[in-house]
Fold these 4 entries.
Entry 1:
Amino acid sequence: MKSRIDNVFISGADGELGSQIMKSLLEMPSLHRHLPNITVYAGVSVHNENISSSQLEERDTMAMVVNVDPINNPEAIVHSLSNVSKLLLLIDPLSGKLTQNDTLSFARGYINAAKEANVEHIIFPTPFTKLDTPFTPPLTPTDEKDETESSINNNNNNNSYRDQFELVESMLKETFPSSQITILRYPGVLNQHLLLFSRHIIEHSKIPLIDNPSMIFECCDISDVVRAICNILYCPVQRHGGKIYKITGPNLLTTDEIAVKASLGLGRTITPDFLPNNQLYEILSEVIPGKEEVAYLLELWGLQGKNYINGSYNSGGARRVQVTRDLEMITGGPGKSLRDFFVNNRATFCDKI
């Protein structure tokens, strides 16, 4: 183990989630005077012409930008990781710089580099929770000894995002002792996703939702996810190493309850608009240019439902929906409510014409 170095490396820092984490992480010493200043390395795609050091500084992150190519040149990451004690293995398909087919290779590059650099603590945020019942057959033959390794090595282009995130989790557990890993699960339905539907809500006073009124959602605010991650990154590895957390909002919500929270927050009546996937896809495609990003969001929202898995509905629950107190345990405070989100973003959902 290396001597105490509190510096942090954040992979996949091209997107909004990575940017918010960097900014919040570097603001923590000014908010909590007992915390030391740390160096944050922001790993961005070597092919990303839209991100530069100066642009990150304009976002007030002041992070040290590292242009990386973990898929084709993972060895180059080892030098930067040798300067840190913690790696936030952030995989963000919404950044627009990571294709679905490259997800496993992206993660493998960072994991292998972290192992070589003797990184002490790896934090892996994932929007997917383990399924309670295996409704579908495994991706590979069920030889338990070789199943995980075969699945990882077989970068199947047809794998869903859920499959790939679960394989990344397995890859981590195969590479590092559990005491060096922290898994942070969060619901795929984030309050901020509803901003993508602002025009539809303005024009129709309806929230577009998946066509299944019996679904139950776990929602949470992106700021709560960021807050939990930053607290873990600033703590000694012994406090959170080996833990699996699940961050949720304060309530489980049905589709009708989501509409009620929107109505209370916006001060006008909002109703659910149940739409098939193809219509949701069209609405999202008007505001998101990348097809894979749209597909990722649809998978997140669909698979978060209580009775939905792999494209169809089942009478048995695919996964357990629940409210946890993990956020309060990590940060000392509760999560933000969906109603408060709408109150704080009322201007975005109001017609300015």
Entry 2:
Amino acid sequence: MNVIKGKVWKFGDNIDTDIISPSKYMEAPMDEQVKHVMEAINPKFPQEVKPGDVIVAGRNFGCGSSRETAPDLIKRLGIAAVVAESFARIFFRNSVAIGLPILVCPKVSEAFNEGDILELDLEKAIVKNTNKNITLEGIPLSPDMLKVLKKGGIQPLLKEMAKTQK
């Protein structure tokens, strides 16, 4: 996997799936829903985020309901990765399943300011703040999770596996 490098959008602790994917837009098409990601806490986020940007967050990112659209909308915005001090388990698993790079990294929230540049080596679980010359070690992902992420999610991986079994 290549090193991911992008501008940081910073969020705090306990960012729940209702903030990420507001319920009042749940019936709207995904192209409409994506315009409202995180707007309750950062109204400029959905309009100003650029492909390749990254999210840095505190503890328990993605808590709340098991809203599967939350990581999908983040990925559709072009976010290259989410690095947080901890994640709600279901959000973490859903992110891996759809191929959204994700990493638990203690102390990441205090090491970054919004707008800093983050470099992430997912295979080595190394996170760097290039603005402050800080390097952190995250909690390595399992080989199986890395395999799923390298293929872009479970569905692309299964399609590839099915082709090789024919």
Entry 3:
Amino acid sequence: MIVQKNKLAKNFIMISICIPILTVLCLSISLLLPPLHFSLPNIQYTFLRQNKMIQGFSTIFLSIILEAFPFIMVGTILSSMIQIFVSEETLTKIIPQNKFLGSLGAALTGLIFPICDCAIVPVARRLIKKGLPLHIGITFMLSVPILNPVVLASTYYAFSNNIYIVIIRGLLGIIGAMIIGNIIGSIYNKDTIFKNKIDMNLQHHHKHMGECQCGCGHSHHNLGKKHNLRSIIVEIIDHTTIELHDVGKFIIIGSFLSALMQTVIPRKYILLVGHDKIYSILVMIGLAFLLAVCSETDAFIARTFVGQFTTGSIIAFLIFGPMIDIKNTLMLSTTFKTTFIIKLIFAIFTVCFTIGVLVNYLGFNGGLIL
């Protein structure tokens, strides 16, 4: 009975992902065909398939989805494997305890352990509770989703093999995460940021709203009891399937809103805001927070704004989104105090906004045509 429910759940997950994509794909194909005319007695139906707005929407939406899909698959599989095979104890051992080296080591951990941003909050929370210094834990939480190799690869591909955007995203992401981590570490003690002292063993057995829906926020110490390859593969597939649903729905929503914004809003108004060195950054940071797109695919959405928004605003979008968004805020709210979350978000906003302003006013465009 349980197996049947799991199969039904997986089928529902895949259908919920595929139907919107197939619907828009069929619509897009129909738009490429010449207009059809059906003549009936006294009635003539003309299907207007050359509608530029609908065609533009479909093109943008599909281009984001189709280009991002391979990176979603690779990212979710790698993230699932990391969550299963790598424990928090391993991460704690490889990160230096020295203040500077610890922050730098935490910032660079993402290059080795590509953890998705939807899983990073539960992992970072447990690391802090297990004794990792707060400033190192915050740096780890903010930088790992940016330094994820899949994220860097998707950024490189999305921006037409532009290595400068990849370097500036990674470098400024590291610097920003270290600054924010040390700011928060100087303000708070790790014993004062949690709502209550809940036993972590109890949390492990009771899934809360704040855990990632993919379940990847849990350590799988029971894996050691399963010595056969089949059980390991099944667990990886289970993680990947559910995480794909969690990530997939956000990329679909984000792609939809991005395409809608660029086709419904008149271009002159987009350019009016997008070319302003300050307002463009505020708008893109707001989008990053609300869209809550996975860091492995956000570059494809950011790419669609090239030529319409400033380079600084696009860089701010690429750095701010992986650090904090609405879904990660909800995860944080289940364990951390509200005042801590507000100050953390404010620190992230301030640093990312400053980075965007500096990029704009220093004239860096990273090879983008604006």
Entry 4:
Amino acid sequence: MCSLVLLLFFLAALVVKCVLVVGYQNGVPLSEMWGIFNGPQLYRIFGLSNERAPNTVETIGNYSLSTLKGLLYVSTSLAFGPVVLYILYNRGMLAPIAATGVLKYIVILGIFGYGGRFVGRLMDSDYRQFVGVWEKAKIGTAEDKQSLKRYDFELIGVTPDYRAVENRDLWYLPAYNEGSAFSNLLATYAVHAFGRHMIYPGSMAILNTLMSSTLRVARNNFVASKNGQRVWLNSTTGDLIDAMFIPPDSSADAERQRTLVICCEGNAGFYEIGITNTPIQLGYGVLGFNQPGFAESNGLPFPTNVLAAAEAVFQYATNVLQYREEDIVLFGWSIGGFPASWLAANHPNVKALILDATFDDLLPLAESRMPSFLHSIVEVAIRKYFNLEIHRILEQYRGPLRLIRRLHEEILIIDDQSMNDVQKRATNRANYLLKKVLYDRHPDLIKDLEPQVDRWLKMTPAQRAMSAGLERNATESANRLAKLLSACDHYFVDFDANHVTPLDPGYFNIPMARTNF
């Protein structure tokens, strides 16, 4: 034990000596060293073609810390922690002597990680300059904050551009408090161990790491080529939300220039490479954001956090960017239809709501992918922690609405085993969303005619056009059916693509308000 303590003391002393020597050689006063030690990673200066390349010493430190964080995450997670504990116990590594040996390697890895990163940063004049700007922006003026916006970096220790104001009048789905104590216990474990990661894979550390380089390149393109304005928002749940505002194209028509599209991404989508590009191509002003736990946004994507993030974005759009609600279009893709619909329900004067590849309810999709004997646990887990009943949220919204279904959908279908495209398409949850919208908005039209809607949903657009021409006659029932199918045409459009294909700009058509068909 004494030899271990001496070894660790020697390593720590060696690192401290290296730090002092390198700091002295580079003229870094002791007062600035804490910022360099504790500062965020610097990725690049916006506008430059190449990312910052850390020196070898810092790179070794970064890799050491990444390894250490990965090991700690796996060993302490609810999903893998029990397995790691069982393996350590079976190998006798929980005994005091063996545990001391494990602790030794952890401490050594930490010393090399933090020490290497610290020394490497001290040797980098660009990083030292960045930290000076970063420190000054914490307590400085608006100009100091704008100077910090020149850099792309890990969002640590930044002052938000806007802090959301709590609104107690916001509407939410009622809480679910059913299920036995045992079911609730299993559901709670399942959600926190692996359920959240399955529902929102974009919040997983490994995916964020794999996507980080691509996201940084796209972020730089927004700022350098699209005049993008990066903003940091503080939600009412305390999460820091990374967002990007792309001003409207000056060559676009007046209607598009005064319209803002707020984009809500899917469960593995990021504003840098997601649905924001579709309205950008059309010249609209666009405000995209990353959900909590995605890329540089912190927190976890539980519904409360996701909705708080969306509300912070909406408040920023109206209070800071000065857009009227009547000039805001809400655009949600996949699970992003949940916050987009909720914003529409709470801000009913928005110009329109467009839902692309969105479902009516998460529960049927979750149950279809789990063994039947677990359905009771799945129901409690979804209803209590991820109750995404979009169709119930839409009951609170009466404004212009457009639903886009993907003809080759592979994610939102219940029957993913069938080889028949028509059969698979019939189980697309977007179909159910349309029918529930019709029952809510036009109950007199769809009454006793739901099979006709199912028949219409199986048709191609060309077949629908022919059918509409053939079915018009003077009878009251035929007239009601024609009105019902006209309502279907108004709310619903098919896009010949799979779930992840970017939406063609030609399909991004803002719907108008309509009640009579």
